[in-house]
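Q: Hand in one record:
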Amino acid sequence: MTAETTSDLIVVGGGIAGLVAANRARELGLATTLVEQGEGDRYLCNSRMTGGVFHIAFHDVTGPAAGLRAAIDAATAGHADAALADALAEDAGRAVEWLSGHGARFIRGGAFDWMSRVLTPPGLQRPGLAWQGRGGDVLLRDLAARFTAAGGRMRTGTRAVGLMVEDGRCAGLTVEHGGGREALRARAVLIADGGFQGNAELVRRHISPRPEALCTRGGGTGRGDGLLMAEAAGAKLVEMGCFYGHVQCLEAIGDEALWPYPILDLLTAAGILVDAQGRRFADEGLGGVAAANAIARLDRPDAALVVFDEAIWQGPGRDYLIPPNPNILDAGVKLVSAPTLAELAAKTGMDPAVLAATVEAHNAALAQDRLQTLDPPRSDPAGAAMPVTGPFHALRVCAGITYTMGGIATDADGRVRHRDGGTVGGLFAAGSAAAGIEGGSRVGYVGGLTKAVVFALRAAECAARKD
């Protein structure tokens, strides 16, 4: 191993959480090194490819803290760690103000209040992948330039492989670079290398029996390195079974023309999500994030379908910014259509009797306002469910995974919790590597970008206090 170097803080990961933390640490006088496994100045990560909307549970990120706190509770059904939820609600406005003061440019992205802060240049309103020169890419390159101009040390092409722990406290990091290993000593380490969605074995263990049947709708670079290092150092891990994502066309697996958008969430919320036999397996009313998680948990996650009719296809199918109708057809996806359910079943391989019973039960429960009596029960908080009466359509779907919600448990200042109680001295986590707010039985989602910036700021500030 080569000679050791010394920093006050080492940040692992060059996404938005890592770069915000690194910049804030430099502002506070810490000698800071950032290590990033990707190469070059446009290394891939989820926040470089983001749509750029800063919100809290689809509420205006600049709104009153009390309202944001209530929104977090509503989205997670009270599941979120109270201290983390309080911190997120209180500091959300400060987070976007800090970004604005450090080069971020925002526009109003739409009519909804939660679109009040969207990075510009905004994403292109077209299907498929187009991130270069858009808001996330511009912001990360600017934050990286600010960090190095302020004296920060940024090392790309450098992968973290282990934590140095001395007397129960984190004392640095071991990295791989250029075919060799190097020990970097530091007073503290902040893990911000994203989730573990890019690690097939971890995904198989915690999320889906067939990770190859999921659509990666992001950089795919989160390999869980920081999570595994933290676990080896005694960190507590929580919520490992949940992820943020959307319902995608099955054809989106491996086809960049069909992800991250269009998504099929609104079709799913209006129609019926079924397995290969034609049987419901999820509560469609919980939304696309929960539906994607339910699809991923199936033994055959690539055999799920959404069943709907022409009214839904022409209604919800044309809603949202980049709707599936007609965009998926233009990209070559085949819409399976038939005048009867029996013919639809024959074309898709579903059991005609099972499909007919599923649709009949759905329509009857909707007409009689008793969706909760279905098996599984169906909620309908926004009144999105619609009858499925024909002409009938079906699309083969898959779970699109953006980032994992589970990971390293922290306190409100980003200090990593030890599995036996207390914290791991000198070790912090932020962004998708950290957990404790999102997830739960409803797979509650509160907004990855805002969460990342809030806790990156708080972790860097805590490290500077030498708590």
Notes: The two ends are 31 Å apart (CA to CA).
